[in-house]
Amino acid sequence: MNNKEKYIKDINDRFEGKTRELLLRQVELFYDNQRIEKTKYDIGEYVKLLKGTFMHGIFGELDNFDFTINNGFIATDFTDQSRPNKICNSVGMWNIKEDILLKDYINLYSGFTISYSIGRGPGSKIVSKLIPYHKFDEVTEEINNDEEIWSYWGDKTKEVSFIPSLVSDKRQIAFILNMNSNYAKELSYNDVWNLDFEEDVLKPFLDYRYAEKFLSNERLNRDASTTDRESAIMFGLPASLIEGVFVGRKIEKDKSALKYIKEKLPDCYICNLDGKVIVGNK
Description:
11 helices; alpha+beta; 282 residues; 2 domains; three-stranded antiparallel sheet
């Protein structure tokens, strides 16, 4: 039994109804594995992320690199790497919400998520927003001088935990996926966060401890804290959508690692935390 047959059997065994149909269709699309046109860059050029671009980080340095490019982005629930997730049977992606230079994206998401209360008591309102890298003192000073703001609190952005950032070396590799083609858009439509899907379809994708909160709250009222920039693609996405590899400082300084990445993905560019291409693909 090959991998595709194994995934189809698993889906038929574990799911039913519309959910099963969606997953089976996603597997068929996944293995259609259409080639996409990749954006071309020379060394030194700034990478631009278009609205709808996906980004996905991996654990370790090159530890999980080969698995990803050989197998694609597949939900761990369908592999022997299964681990607990709030949203299961899907692959998490950072979904770029508007055209932005990679350097500006990095600066923003290497920062902080701050939430503050306007007023107090039953009529108060909670607001959450992103604070760019090194702007925390400036923003909190403004908040402290605003008489309507009663309290505030914050956390690092979730991106810091999953992709290379200016504040942590924990993540060294993220893939940039070109989602502009009709093929890619058809795959990305099957997103657990997609409001087109009814609740019964979504329940098999949610941990039982999280389902009620997701369906009643977070799905409809996402903000910078929850976050409003994540996608969870049912089953997964093929590696053919990769157009670039975004690396942290450790990998950037490792010539053998860069050479290895380029040999494995010869038609892709490699870029760094400055948002610049360090290995071109023109």
